[in-house]
């Protein structure tokens, strides 16, 4: 196994780099590293909420609730795709979701 030096910035730019041993399976250590790197995204939301005077407890709670809902929905959708053998179409669905998110950000 090759030991790579990966920094949070690399993972933020390309989350696939969290799979340090290129096994196409993320173990606990790699998942923890990925989770910490991606949680940096919430810092901006927390600072913004503090600046405009929102209660930090409620901002954190809602962020956690929405994250858990998103994870649950993602797992449910993945099981659906696996059940119906649609895994070859997942890249197409991911592209549509990213386009939709981009359009939503513009609007």
Tell me the layout of helices and strands.
Elements: H1 8-13, H2 28-39, H3 41-51, H4 56-83, H5 90-106
Give an overview in words:
It is a single chain. The chain is mostly helical and 107 residues long. The chain has 5 helices and no strands. It has helices at 8-13, 28-39, 41-51, 56-83, 90-106. Helix 3 runs antiparallel to helix 4. The radius of gyration is 17 Å and the shape is globular. The chain starts with 7 loop residues before the first helix and ends with a helix. The relative contact order is 0.06. The model has no long low-confidence stretch (mean pLDDT 78).
Give a brief outline of the structure.
The protein is an all-alpha fold and 107 residues long. Helix content is 69%, strand content 0%.
Observed structural traits:
0% strand; globular; 5 helices; 107 residues; mainly alpha
Distance from N terminus to C terminus (CA atoms, Å) equals: 46 Å
Rg result: 17 Å
Series of secondary-structure elements, N-terminal to C-terminal: HHHHH
Largest β-sheet summary? none
Number of strands: 0
Strand content: under 5%
Structural class: mainly alpha
Helix content: 55-70%
- Uncertain residue segments: none
Quick one: overall form? Answer: globular
Count of alpha and pi helical runs = 5
What is the overall pLDDT average? 78
């Amino acid at each position: 196994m090759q030991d790579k030096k990966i920094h949070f910035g690399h993972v933020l730019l390309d989350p696939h780099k969290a799979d340090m041993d290129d096994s196409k399976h993320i173990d606990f250590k790699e998942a923890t590293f990925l989770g910490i790197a991606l949680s940096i995204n919430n810092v901006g939301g927390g600072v913004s909420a503090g600046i405009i005077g929102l209660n930090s407890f409620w901002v954190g709670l809602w962020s956690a609730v929405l994250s858990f809902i998103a994870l649950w929905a993602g797992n449910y959708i993945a099981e659906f795709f696996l059940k119906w053998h649609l895994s070859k179409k997942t890249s197409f669905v991911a592209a549509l979701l990213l386009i939709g998110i981009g359009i939503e950000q513009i609007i």
